Amino acid sequence: MRAVVVREHGPVAAQRVETLPDPVPGPGEVLVEVHAAGLNFPDILVIEGKYQILPPRPFSPGKELAGVVRAVGDGVTTCRAGDRVMAWVEYGAYAELALVPEPQCFVMPAAMRFAEGAAMGLTYITAWFALNDRARAQAGETVLVTGAAGGLGLACVQVAHAMGCTVIAGITNPTRAELVKAGGAAHVVDLAADNLRDGLRKQVAMATGGRGADVVLDPVGGDVFDAAIRALAWRGRLVVLGFAAGRIPEVKANYLLVKNIAVSGLQVSDYRDRDPAWFRRAQGELLAWYEAGKLKPEVTMRYPLEGFAEGLAHFTRRGMHGKIVLAIKEDA
User: Spelled out in words, what is the top-level CATH class assigned to the domain 2-120+297-327?
Assistant: First the structure.
């Protein structure tokens, strides 16, 4: 099989596609012929050796994929050879074949394309746990999503809307307004505005009748986090999802006290590892919402396996929108 192989941590552009022996599924494992793999910002951190969980080298990066089951190991009962599946892995998706633990493999709806299945991995399950567990969001509450036009941000917009929340989408490029509105955003605010520290709070206040946002989902960090926390309503909750802006922000505890607000973080792989049954229930709900037409992964760019570095380069630029996938097979 062909696969992207990281032998030493370093720049993404320094990694290469190699030919490796085909893997064989062990007990409880599913061997998937990968048709599409999703690209995510954490993949860059894993390749560079900066992520909190690093696999033993050499390894293939990539945390989400979709394809066809080629074989299953002993004890596997939830899928069989020939099934079309989407899957969640800690690493290994940038390859023509991938081994997946059975609890992380899901049979796809018949109407779902492989690119959509790959795009519904990391981002949508992150959005689900951020809203349902960390933020404990309720229907009717207002949710501000920063970086809303990106892959994770757009998933957060769609999931919050599916839950019955009123969504405020924060974007830096006004040309992405229609994209986030199509995803379910009721209001759009400008994250590139002058004096963002005060300006974002004013924009959110206008959208909420002066109340502020009940929930903020922030995958951006930096100055956007500093501004977004000021836009929270009384008893508001902010969930840290990442630091795409580069700077890891800090918050003073007295500010949390004075405003009666809460800030929490989300490491979604912990849910997969610590409570697989909960993880499967969450993924099942997401797939049901997809079938009901409430979720629609927005795949905006496709690259071949050899184009992984070019695809990942988009995460280092401002204004990225939608989801990028590796189309490893032509039907992706």
Answer: alpha beta
CB 220, CB 146: distance < 8 Å: yes
pTM of the complete model: 0.93
Separation between Cα atoms, residue 75 and residue 30, nearest integer Å: 10
Strands (E) located in 128-241: 142-145, 166-171, 185-190, 213-218, 232-240
Residue pointed to by tokens 């012929």:
33
Please report the DSSP string for 242-298 in residue order: --TTSPPP---HHHHHHHT-EEEE--THHHHHH-HHHHHHHHHHHHHHHHTTS----
User: Could you read off the pLDDT of 233-252 as tens digits, one per residue?
Assistant: 999 999 999 998 889 999 99
Cα–Cα distance, 170 to 293 (Å, whole number): 24
CA 100 to chain centre: 19
Burial of 332 (0-12, 13-18, 19+ CB in 10 A): buried
CA distance linking residue 162 with residue 157, whole number of Å? 9
Residues 286-323 pLDDT 10s: 999 999 999 999 999 999 999 999 999 998 876 678 89
The domain ranges of the chain are 2-120+297-327, 123-265
CB atoms within 10 A of CB 113: 17
